[in-house]
Specification:
- By secondary structure, this protein is α/β, with parallel strands linked by helices.
- The protein contains 5 helices and 8 strands; from the N terminus they run βαβααβαβαββββ.
- The termini are far apart.
- 28% of the residues are buried.
Protein backbone atom coordinates (compact mmCIF):
# COMPACT_ATOMS: atom_id res chain seq x y z
CA UNK A 1 0.00 0.00 0.00
CA UNK A 2 1.20 3.50 -0.72
CA UNK A 3 1.41 5.67 2.36
CA UNK A 4 0.14 9.19 2.63
CA UNK A 5 -1.34 11.58 5.16
CA UNK A 6 -4.04 9.88 7.27
CA UNK A 7 -6.77 12.23 5.97
CA UNK A 8 -5.91 11.53 2.33
CA UNK A 9 -8.55 9.17 0.89
CA UNK A 10 -7.49 5.75 -0.34
CA UNK A 11 -8.11 4.93 -3.98
CA UNK A 12 -8.82 1.22 -4.41
CA UNK A 13 -8.00 -0.16 -7.86
CA UNK A 14 -10.12 -3.18 -8.80
CA UNK A 15 -8.45 -6.09 -10.60
CA UNK A 16 -10.55 -5.33 -13.70
CA UNK A 17 -8.22 -2.36 -14.30
CA UNK A 18 -5.14 -4.61 -14.30
CA UNK A 19 -2.36 -5.19 -11.81
CA UNK A 20 0.39 -2.71 -12.64
CA UNK A 21 0.00 -0.05 -15.33
CA UNK A 22 -3.13 1.75 -14.09
CA UNK A 23 -2.05 1.49 -10.45
CA UNK A 24 1.38 2.99 -11.25
CA UNK A 25 -0.20 5.86 -13.20
CA UNK A 26 -2.57 6.68 -10.35
CA UNK A 27 0.21 6.38 -7.74
CA UNK A 28 2.11 9.02 -9.72
CA UNK A 29 -0.63 11.56 -8.88
CA UNK A 30 -2.04 10.20 -5.58
CA UNK A 31 -0.04 8.76 -2.70
CA UNK A 32 -2.64 6.52 -1.09
CA UNK A 33 -3.49 3.67 -3.47
CA UNK A 34 -4.44 0.04 -2.87
CA UNK A 35 -4.55 -2.59 -5.57
CA UNK A 36 -7.16 -5.36 -5.32
CA UNK A 37 -4.54 -8.10 -5.05
CA UNK A 38 -2.71 -6.22 -2.25
CA UNK A 39 -5.68 -6.92 0.01
CA UNK A 40 -7.82 -9.71 -1.44
CA UNK A 41 -7.51 -13.06 -3.16
CA UNK A 42 -7.75 -12.69 -6.91
CA UNK A 43 -11.01 -14.65 -6.91
CA UNK A 44 -12.58 -12.75 -3.98
CA UNK A 45 -16.30 -12.26 -4.72
CA UNK A 46 -17.01 -8.68 -5.74
CA UNK A 47 -19.74 -8.18 -3.15
CA UNK A 48 -17.27 -9.01 -0.35
CA UNK A 49 -14.54 -6.64 -1.42
CA UNK A 50 -17.10 -3.92 -2.21
CA UNK A 51 -18.47 -4.23 1.33
CA UNK A 52 -14.96 -3.90 2.76
CA UNK A 53 -14.18 -0.93 0.51
CA UNK A 54 -17.32 0.82 1.73
CA UNK A 55 -16.59 0.00 5.38
CA UNK A 56 -13.01 1.31 5.01
CA UNK A 57 -14.25 4.41 3.13
CA UNK A 58 -12.04 3.62 0.14
CA UNK A 59 -12.86 5.17 -3.22
CA UNK A 60 -13.27 2.32 -5.70
CA UNK A 61 -12.09 2.51 -9.30
CA UNK A 62 -13.22 -0.35 -11.54
CA UNK A 63 -13.86 -1.22 -15.15
CA UNK A 64 -16.71 -3.63 -14.35
CA UNK A 65 -19.66 -1.99 -16.11
CA UNK A 66 -21.99 -4.82 -15.04
CA UNK A 67 -21.50 -4.10 -11.32
CA UNK A 68 -24.68 -2.04 -11.21
CA UNK A 69 -26.80 -4.92 -12.49
CA UNK A 70 -25.64 -7.61 -10.04
CA UNK A 71 -28.02 -7.62 -7.04
CA UNK A 72 -25.40 -8.77 -4.49
CA UNK A 73 -22.86 -6.20 -5.66
CA UNK A 74 -25.43 -3.39 -5.75
CA UNK A 75 -26.59 -4.37 -2.24
CA UNK A 76 -22.99 -4.24 -0.96
CA UNK A 77 -22.52 -0.77 -2.48
CA UNK A 78 -25.73 0.51 -0.91
CA UNK A 79 -25.44 -1.21 2.49
CA UNK A 80 -21.82 -0.15 3.04
CA UNK A 81 -22.08 3.32 1.50
CA UNK A 82 -19.42 2.50 -1.08
CA UNK A 83 -18.14 5.16 -3.44
CA UNK A 84 -17.64 3.54 -6.85
CA UNK A 85 -16.31 4.97 -10.10
CA UNK A 86 -16.61 2.80 -13.23
CA UNK A 87 -14.37 3.43 -16.23
CA UNK A 88 -16.46 3.07 -19.39
CA UNK A 89 -13.96 4.39 -21.92
CA UNK A 90 -14.12 1.40 -24.21
CA UNK A 91 -11.34 -0.79 -25.48
CA UNK A 92 -8.17 1.15 -24.62
CA UNK A 93 -4.71 0.03 -23.54
CA UNK A 94 -3.69 -0.05 -19.89
CA UNK A 95 -1.38 2.88 -20.55
CA UNK A 96 -4.23 4.95 -22.00
CA UNK A 97 -6.56 3.96 -19.13
CA UNK A 98 -3.88 5.02 -16.67
CA UNK A 99 -3.53 8.39 -18.41
CA UNK A 100 -7.29 8.99 -18.41
CA UNK A 101 -7.85 7.91 -14.81
CA UNK A 102 -4.79 9.70 -13.40
CA UNK A 103 -6.01 12.95 -15.03
CA UNK A 104 -9.46 12.29 -13.54
CA UNK A 105 -8.17 11.80 -9.96
CA UNK A 106 -8.72 15.45 -8.89
CA UNK A 107 -12.30 15.30 -10.21
CA UNK A 108 -12.86 11.92 -8.51
CA UNK A 109 -11.57 13.27 -5.19
CA UNK A 110 -13.67 16.45 -5.43
CA UNK A 111 -16.81 14.47 -6.28
CA UNK A 112 -16.12 12.11 -3.35
CA UNK A 113 -15.71 15.04 -0.95
CA UNK A 114 -18.93 16.67 -2.13
CA UNK A 115 -21.13 13.53 -2.18
CA UNK A 116 -21.67 10.95 0.51
CA UNK A 117 -21.84 7.30 -0.45
CA UNK A 118 -23.35 5.20 -1.64
CA UNK A 119 -22.86 6.24 -5.22
CA UNK A 120 -21.97 4.82 -8.61
CA UNK A 121 -20.39 7.17 -11.14
CA UNK A 122 -19.30 6.42 -14.70
CA UNK A 123 -16.02 7.83 -16.04
CA UNK A 124 -15.90 8.23 -19.80
CA UNK A 125 -12.89 8.30 -22.11
CA UNK A 126 -12.50 12.06 -21.69
CA UNK A 127 -12.49 11.71 -17.87
CA UNK A 128 -16.01 13.12 -17.58
CA UNK A 129 -18.29 11.84 -14.82
CA UNK A 130 -21.91 10.69 -14.98
CA UNK A 131 -23.64 9.80 -11.72
CA UNK A 132 -26.20 7.00 -11.93
CA UNK A 133 -29.33 6.48 -9.88
CA UNK A 134 -28.59 3.72 -7.40
CA UNK A 135 -31.37 1.57 -6.00
CA UNK A 136 -31.90 -2.02 -4.95
CA UNK A 137 -33.97 -2.57 -8.09
CA UNK A 138 -32.48 -4.55 -10.95
CA UNK A 139 -33.39 -1.56 -13.09
CA UNK A 140 -30.55 0.50 -11.60
CA UNK A 141 -28.97 2.60 -14.27
CA UNK A 142 -32.27 3.74 -15.74
CA UNK A 143 -32.87 7.47 -15.38
CA UNK A 144 -34.64 8.45 -12.19
CA UNK A 145 -38.26 9.56 -12.38
CA UNK A 146 -38.57 13.19 -13.40
CA UNK A 147 -40.68 15.74 -11.62
CA UNK A 148 -43.59 17.03 -13.66
CA UNK A 149 -44.64 20.69 -13.76
CA UNK A 150 -46.95 20.20 -10.77
CA UNK A 151 -44.18 18.57 -8.73
CA UNK A 152 -45.62 15.09 -9.20
CA UNK A 153 -43.25 12.25 -10.00
CA UNK A 154 -43.58 10.49 -13.28
CA UNK A 155 -41.83 9.61 -16.50
CA UNK A 156 -41.71 12.07 -19.31
CA UNK A 157 -43.81 10.88 -22.22
Amino acid sequence: MSSGPPDLPTLFIDRSLGKHVVGAAIRAVHRKVLLHDDVFRQDEPDDLWLARAGAENWIVLTRDKRIRYNPAERKAIIDCNARVFVFTGGNVTGTRMGEILSRAVPTILTYSEEHRGPFLVLIDRSGGLLALALSRSTRTGNPPARRGPSGSRGRKS
